[in-house]
Amino acid sequence: MKKLFFIYLLLLSITLPAQTNQAIAGRIIYKFSHVRDTTMPTRSYKEDMVLFFNKDISLYKSYTKLVNDSLRNIEMEKALAAGVNKLNIGRVRATTMDEYYTDVQKKQFWRYRPFLGNNYVVMEALSKIDWKILDETRVINGNNCQKATGKIGGRTWFAWFCIDFPFAYGPWKLNGLPGLILEATDEKNRISFVFSGIELNGSGNTALNFPSNMMKTTNKSLNEMIEAYKNDPNAFSAETGVELKVTSSQTVTRAVINNPLEIPDK
Prior knowledge:
Layout: H1 2-12, E1 26-34, E2 45-53, E3 57-62, H2 63-81, E4 99-103, E5 108-115, E6 118-125, E7 132-140, E8 143-152, E9 155-162, E10 180-186, E11 191-200, E12 214-217, H3 219-231, H4 233-240
Parallel strand pairs: 6-12
Antiparallel strand pairs: 1-2, 1-11, 2-3, 3-4, 4-5, 5-6, 7-8, 8-9, 9-10, 10-11
Helix pairs in contact: 3-4
């Protein structure tokens, strides 16, 4: 925890300027499924994810969280208008907090994560996937797609891309094909991104931009900090000085994850 405290202090001194807002060219929604615990192969984590994109940059994030936040804001506005100072939002489902930006011009991949009131960013070089385009084709939602296979994150992936959408993006870190990736799965069929819908030429008011006052860090430091908080929030608060409202009655069942999305290097 002492090591974590010094990392935390160091991060507070590093900020990055906000990026210029960029209008989106479209968005694609995926049904994400992930068998996190291989000892229970019939149970998988499921979430709707969305990829916003234009010709230069893409943003991949939780669509489930986006919808939930929007509905919660509507309910809060209704409550305020009615003079109600208490709002029962019901059970809040855990969703993916990480957001991923791919910048093809700068050849960068950024992981953005809000955590306890701060905005952290991990900046990496954009991974170049050595895709092998195969002869196999199929139609997805009326779109002619071609199959490709490549390796990234310790896994072999199969992706279906469509050249009618000339954007070299896909879900998560999958990118670099001559068309938008509509579906993808790993070779063991434990992780999949299934096409759910697409909109072009603008989708609402979402812009491809970063929040202000981001703190640059590494995946290792960020993951250690998040894990320390999950393991013992009170100890984390004592070491870092972050004020938390944690009661002894709060119990959290930690999911077993022996099959992470990205397999770490050994």
